[in-house]
From TrEMBL:
The protein's annotated pathway: Lipid metabolism; fatty acid biosynthesis
Organism from which the protein derives: Candidatus Cellulosilyticum pullistercoris
The protein's Enzyme Commission number: 2.3.1.180
InterPro entries for the chain: ACP_syn_III_C, ACP_syn_III_N, FabH, Thiolase-like
Domain of life from the UniProt record: Bacteria
Protein name per UniProt: Beta-ketoacyl-[acyl-carrier-protein] synthase III
Entry's free-text remark on domains: The last Arg residue of the ACP-binding site is essential for the weak association between ACP/AcpP and FabH.
GO biological process: fatty acid biosynthetic process
Record lineage: Bacteria, Bacillati, Bacillota, Clostridia, Lachnospirales
SUPFAM superfamilies, per the entry: Thiolase-like
Spans annotated as ACP-binding: 249-253
Gene name per UniProt: fabH
Length: 319
């Protein structure tokens, strides 16, 4: 028995914020953002919550799979922007969709979160009695941005993507590799939203995303191709045998650099960040959802995430 993808789902807020509109508030421009990141628009939550976006994506994945929510035994949500520290977003989603038999918990691995959550889910499915597992990446990062810091506020946005995995005689998950480098933990940070009031004093902390962009760029363009090569070696495949590369949609320049280091035409790297920006843990499942129309049976696909921690993770799938 193996594991395959049975359904995909995606959800984004209704409000679309263009570079032009953003530049009315921030000292930036459409040309500056596009030339450095590849981002043109992003979806920003006004009334939508992380729970709501995750639930909407989950419902679509369940519908696509044709599986009753009652038969889902595992729900994992990857997020750094939950609405509540407890209960977990996964528990709230399970309640909303009617997955009343599911084991539920959240994972915090930032932009690598979807791959980490998928590895945990697939491992639990292979080792235990779980038949159907729902893995969701969901973020409302706009509530955690300093809208005067153009190094971050032009990048991050909101959305959710869901994948329903099911046990099958046809195995689609060919290899996974994850890792962390805690020495880079201070390169991307977000202080906790609760728990900063001690008994004796109030600690004032800026609860917004802070990032060392140059350091993250060097990390991503070094570690991601290494991780991809490790996964390909496990499967005894070459970079040229991969039909589509779906990387975390952080920066177009990063994806082009990784393509160059792998010796692969950059056209093989799927991009949708021009529409959605950087949605952290939601980025890979959202991109997979958008790329599915391009995929055909038997295609080999690489999913690769990288982010705060520092963390990274790569999956090899067969469509």
């Amino acid at each position: 028995m193996g594991v395959k993808i049975a359904g995909l789902g995606k959800a984004v807020p209704q409000m679309v914020l263009s570079n032009e509109k953003l530049s009315e508030r921030v000292d930036t421009s459409d040309e500056w953002i596009r030339s450095r990141t590849g981002i043109e628009n992003r979806c920003i939550a006004v009334t939508e919550t992380t729970e709501q976006l995750a639930t909407s994506a989950a419902l679509e994945a369940i519908s696509a799979a044709g599986i009753e929510a009652h038969n889902i035994e595992l729900v994992i949500v990857a997020t750094v922007s939950p609405d509540t520290t407890m209960p977990s977003t996964a528990c709230l989603v399970a309640r909303n969709i009617g997955a009343d038999r599911a084991t539920c918990f959240d994972i915090t691995a930032a932009c690598s979160g979807f791959v980490f959550a998928s590895e945990v889910a697939i491992s639990m499915m292979n080792q235990g009695g779980y038949q159907n597992a729902l893995v969701i990446g969901a973020e409302v990062l706009s509530k955690m941005l300093d809208w005067e810091d153009r190094g971050t506020c032009v990048l991050f946005a909101d959305g959710a993507g869901a994948v329903l995995y099911t046990k099958s005689e046809e195995n689609q998950i060919l290899a996974i590799e994850t890792g962390s480098n805690p020495k880079g933990a201070d390169q991307i940070t977000l202080p906790a939203g609760v728990g900063n009031h001690t008994f004796y004093q109030v600690e004032e902390r800026k609860q917004t995303i802070q990032m060392s962009g140059r350091d993250v760029y060097v990390f991503a363009t070094t570690k991601v191709p290494e991780s991809i090569r490790k996964v390909l070696e496990k499967a005894q495949l070459t970079p040229e045998e991969i039909a589509v590369y779906i990387l975390h949609q952080a920066n177009s320049r990063i994806m082009d650099n990784v393509a160059q280091k792998l010796g692969v035409p950059k056209e093989h790297f799927f991009k949708n960040l021009s529409h959605y920006g950087n949605t952290s843990a939601a980025s890979i499942p959202m991109a997979l959802y958008d790329a599915k129309a391009l995929l055909k049976s038997g295609d080999k696909i690489i999913l690769s995430g990288f982010g705060a921690g520092l963390t990274w993770g790569t999956m090899l799938l067969e469509w």
